[in-house]
Fold:
Amino acid sequence: MVLIADSDGALLERLRAGDEAAFTELVERYSGPLMRLVRMYVPSAAVAEEVVQETWLGVLAGLDRFEGRSSLRTWLFQIAINRARTRGARERRTVPFASLADHEAGEDHPSVAPERFLGADHDRWPHHWATPPRRWEELPDRHVESKETMARVRAAIEQLPPAQRTVITLRDIEGWESSEVCNTLEISETNQRVLLHRARSRVRADLESYFAQ
Structure:
């Protein structure tokens, strides 16, 4: 995370100096993450591509006015989200992210299957794990690092509810800090924490099932 922030700071200086290669580097670094986020708000990949292109134009137009109160990355993603919300509303296919976050964080669904815990009447360990999660370091490296496993992780993330999918993508794939996620998505720290926990639990359960095959 520090390396990304540091490199963004250097990139910003080059952008302000009119370095065209810096803009190309910015596009290459963030086009993929922007597409994944924008796709949350609009009805198709084609529309998402248009929004991302509009975002780059917005960056170029607003660079001189950027005061650096947030990181370059946060500013960039906020531009994208604002444009995605506008386009999503025009397409009549959008729901405010904060509403999605409130709904998913407030759902009364357990993050982990209840049968994995001991009952309340257990004589020694009520409500403790009956079948605890397997520690990742206990798995063979070939499983954890394989392309097949990473593909499984991404597939599991794609099946998550929208808000959970966005939060786990930003935190665990893009490496964002919790405060940056909260500021960019305009959600509370509590909701961010709940969404991330539920997302990680679901992905872990999917991988446990996969490794058990």
Residues 1-6 have pLDDT under 50 and may be disordered.
